[in-house]
Amino acid sequence: MSAALQYGSAGAATIAHNGRVTAESKPGAFDLVIREAAPSEAEALGRLVQASYAQYEASYPPDAWKRYFEMLGRMDGHLEKAQVLVAEASGRPVGSVTFYPDGSLSGQGEWPPDWAGMLRLAVLPEHRGRGIGRALVEECIARCRALGISTLGLHTTEWMDVARGMYERMGFVRDQGFDFVPRSGVYAYGYRLDLRDGAAPNAGSA
């Protein structure tokens, strides 16, 4: 399953019901396709995630960063148990996210089995601010709705302020009951999005 979009400099997109782009081309516009990753892409996606998170190195103790960075590069296990989504801008992979329909299998804290889990949202630095991260989150939300899943959970950290702001604009709320400390030793903040009332994400891009 994939979605085709066209984005302009402001990050706006139009998606037709048949998956074809209907937005008019604008200066600086680019085509964005979100699709599921193939197992053969594990190594390349690991490098993409590592490149996307490299800016946080100074926020971690050295030993913790080494463990965390190595973990970010290992995608094989997620490809076996989850849906790893890839964002391609004009045919090039520029972002990804890992979506667990059964969040309890994600290894991220203790999500209830009837919640979905989302982790490792990643966009290459040179492609940020174009709505790619938001589009990946929206795809996870759409998959929750299609599966009848009522809640989507995720974890983030204190210094991932841009991502936290985007999540909050999209309707995610803090849930301290799902905070946890992973093997990296860095405190992870729990967030959830309740989809039972059919609430739509708010405006904004990242």
Instruction: List unreliable stretches of 5+ residues.
Output: 5-27
- Rounded to the nearest angstrom, the radius of gyration is 16 Å
Number of helices: 5
Strand content: 15-25%
Give the end-to-end Cα distance, rounded to a whole number of Å. Answer: 23 Å
Which helices and strands, and how do they pair?
Layout: E1 3-7, E2 30-36, H1 42-53, H2 62-72, H3 76-81, E3 83-89, E4 92-100, E5 116-123, H4 132-147, E6 151-156, H5 161-169, E7 173-174, E8 189-194
Parallel strand pairs: 5-6
Antiparallel strand pairs: 1-2, 2-3, 3-4, 4-5, 6-8, 7-8
Can you offer a commentary on this structure?
The protein is of the alpha+beta class. The protein has one domain: 3-Layer(aba) Sandwich (Aminopeptidase). It is 26% helix and 24% strand. The protein is built from five helices and eight strands, in the order ββαααβββαβαββ. The protein has an eight-stranded mixed sheet with strand order 1-2-3-4-5-6-8-7. β3 and β4 form a beta hairpin. The two termini are 23 Å apart.
